[in-house]
Amino acid sequence: MKNLIKLVSLTLIAAMGFAFAGCGAKSTGMTVEEGVLTMATNAYFPPYEYYDGETIVGIDAEIAAAVAERLGLTLVIEDVEFDSIIGGVQSGKYDIGCAGMTVTEERLQSVNFTTPYATGIQSIIVREGSDITDIDTLIESGCMVAVQSGTTGDIYMTDEVGDERMDRYAKGNDAVIALMQGKVDAVVIDNQPALAFVEANEGLVILDTPYTVEDYAMAINMENTELLDAINQALADLTADGTIAAIIEEYIPTDAE
Ligand code: ARG
Known about the structure:
42% helix; alpha/beta; single chain
């Protein structure tokens, strides 16, 4: 009898624990896999996401981990092609797309975006001593331009120079390698990855473009407003307590600017 009571109370405690976890996490049924926040990214975009050995680190990885923790979920990061992220979020393969992803009108037709947590601008990378000194000389030069496929850089530059002059790569750093090998004369990519690529390689310089500031946010399936609300709340909390600023400062120190 004693044992039975023990068993019953243990079950009760377990059930209560489950109920509490359920309510704290607000997560039951909210994600693709229960208890897990599945994030799709393309991990060649420092300092937002990149490999440190086998591990994907960076601003997005850390912010997503902090969000997951708030929601009582375990973060799992999948490294996929950038232009498959939105489709995967739409089809319910991933919970979030978190990839230094710019909020655009066009993407808003397919997915919802959370509150923005960072910003970026497009930069042009050229070889040192290049005749290309700004967007106008780039357009006039008739040169080939490399971009990461499906990015805002791709969209803007295709608009400026036309399809024939575009060389699209699955990874940002492959575009940079093409530039160093002389296959193309310019790469257009977000400013922070541009800085990281130029720092990591000799003989490259950065030019600014006339394009304005872009907001980075997480993409979420349009039907999953529960997850959208929960993540927005987590992002608000992590902004209020300084966590997001600290993560960004860790990867982009303000005194190094
Ligand atoms: N901000 C740009 C965009 O949304 C580029 C993002 C590329 N991100 C990446 N993880 N490779 O199109």
